[in-house]
Specification:
The chain is of the alpha/beta class. About 45% of the residues lie in helices and about 20% in strands.
Length: about 300
């Protein structure tokens, strides 16, 4: 399969490396020092699942050099989604599938405004980062992708893509309800990222303080109510499951947004907490906790240079 990775950061480069190692023709759309390193030295992956190198990779900042592909995997940060449609267009023809793997719930519909039925919905669980140009450090035992058609259909292309992705060794699942998957993931990341980023505290102090623990649970309940108001069928015990997960996290565990705050990087607060605020306004559902997180993190993000 001919595959383009749009946004070859930590997650995109790792997935692209796995796909290239599995025998697929992979092109990385990257930029800056990382692009230059990929072109000069190839890709080096250091992973808990085993290290490997891809000495020769196809990498460019100009998709016209690649042309139409079978599958475009979009892993750019959510704050760049609004500017990538024109960038992606040379990669897409009537036979191309577009698989966005970002945080939040809004990206598939935003891309569908440009590319229609080419767009799937997808969610990814991988901890991976660019530690230096051309070098990826993948840290999590979990490496999971769940994807499906936005309208819930079971289509042949889902199984073709599943077969291609499954060859990487990652956990790959097809779902008939990708909206439920996306909102279930958002319930956790928006709530835990919100409270951990605002307090600058890891999981241990948040879960051991009665007041912050209650605030985290209330934040999850807000997302649950908003999702149900939008017609998303979350599991009845979705909050209990996620609170139990938080209780079992390592005390020093942090959210990716919290790490971005500490490093002075741009934040995905708008696609995460902002999406809940917008959905709340759309459904006339109050979201005071996530509006608080969203507002505080907007201020923090405004100071990033």
């Amino acid at each position: 399969m001919k595959i383009a990775i749009v946004g070859a950061g930590g997650v995109g480069s790792y997935l692209g490396g796995l796909l290239a190692r599995a025998g697929h023709e992979v092109a990385f759309i990257a930029r800056g020092e990382h692009l230059r390193a990929l072109c000069a030295k190839g890709l080096k992956v250091r992973s808990v699942h085993g290290d490997f190198d891809i000495p020769h990779v196809i990498a460019t900042d100009d998709p016209h050099e690649i042309g139409a592909v079978d599958l475009t995997i979009c892993t750019v940060k959510t704050y760049d989604v609004g500017i990538i449609a024109d960038l992606m267009r040379p990669l897409i023809d009537p036979h191309t599938a577009v698989l966005p793997l970002q945080n939040g719930v809004e990206t598939p519909d935003r891309l569908a405004q440009h590319f229609g039925l080419a767009v799937l919905g997808g969610a990814v669980w991988i901890v991976s980062a660019v530690t230096e140009p051309g070098v990826i450090h993948q840290q999590s035992q979990f490496r999971r992708i769940v994807f499906g058609e936005l309208d819930g259909r079971d289509t042949p292309r889902l199984h073709t893509i599943h077969q291609a992705l499954e060859r990487t060794g990652a956990t790959i699942e097809i779902t008939s309800d990708i909206r439920k998957v996306l909102w279930t993931k958002l319930l956790f990341i928006a709530s835990f990222s919100g409270i951990s980023s605002v307090t600058r505290a890891p999981a241990g102090p948040v879960m051991n303080c009665a007041e912050s623990r209650l605030l985290l649970e209330r934040a999850m309940r807000e997302v649950e109510v908003v999702a149900r108001a939008k017609g998303v069928h979350l599991d009845p015990d979705v909050v209990e499951k996620n609170m139990d997960f938080c209780d079992k996290m390592a005390p020093d565990a942090t959210s990716s947004m919290q790490r971005d705050v500490a490093a002075g990087r741009r934040l995905e607060y708008d696609a995460v907490n902002g999406a809940i605020v917008r959905a709340g306004r759309e459904t006339s559902t109050p979201t005071p906790i996530h509006e608080f997180f969203w507002t505080c993190l907007k201020v923090v993000d405004s100071m990033v240079t």
